[in-house]
Amino acid sequence: MTLRVLLVDDHEVVRLGLKTLLEDIPWIEVVAEAGDAPGALTAVAQHQPDAVVMDIRLPGESGIEACAAITRQWPQTKVVMLTSHGDDELLFRAIQAGASGYVLKQVGNEALIHALDAVRQGEALLDPVMTQRVLTYVRTHEREREAAAFKELSQREIEVLALVAEGKSNAEIAAALYLSEKTARNHVSTILAKLGFTNRIEAATYAVRHHIDQHLHHD
Description:
This protein is of the alpha/beta class. It contains ten helices and five strands. The protein has helices at 12-23, 37-47, 63-73, 88-96, 109-120, 128-149, 155-165, 170-177, 181-195, 200-209; strands at 3-8, 28-34, 51-55, 78-83, 101-104. It has a five-stranded parallel beta sheet with strand order 2-1-3-4-5, with helices on both faces. The chain is elongated, with a radius of gyration of 25 Å.
C-alpha cells in the first residue's frame, strides 16, 4: 500500500531534503508540499493525503493549530510532527491536538521513515524518550497547578476547607478544630472570598478536584 504524504515546513531547503529522502522509499508518494498552516489545510483538502509530515513551529498559525484542524476535519489523515529539543510544551499540545506521532529533527531520517511506516500499519508512533519527556512535563505542570490551587489560603483555612469538602457544617468544623462556631463561619466566608466562590458546594468541588488532602500538614 502506497502512503500518500504531504510535507509542511516553512524552509524550502528542509522540504527538498525530506522530499528527496522520502521519494527513495518505494511505498511513499509525496503528493504535495506547503510552507505554512493555511497552505497545509488547502493541500489536505485538495489531496486528502494519508499522512502529513509537519514542522511543529510554523510562521503565523502554528503547526499545532493546523494539526488540530486537520485531525478534526480529515480524521483519516494522520499527522507526524517534526520537533526540536526543548519543544516539550509544544509537543504535549500537539499530542492533545491529535498528532499520531512525532520525530526529533536531530534523530534523522530513519526515525521519520519508521514513523511513517507505523502510520501505514495503523499504529501510533511514540518515541520513548520524547514520551517520557512529555509525561514528566505534564506531571510537573500538574504539580505546579496543584500547588497554586490553595496558595491564597492559610494552613488553618486549608484545614477548614478540607472539612467543608467532607460536607461538614460550621458547627462540626468548629468542634473538629476546637474553634468557636463564629470563627469557623468567618473562616468559611474568607475562603469563599479568596477563591471567588459564592457557596460551599463550589468550594468543596474545587477542593476535591485539586486534592486538598495532599495540602494538609499532618503532624
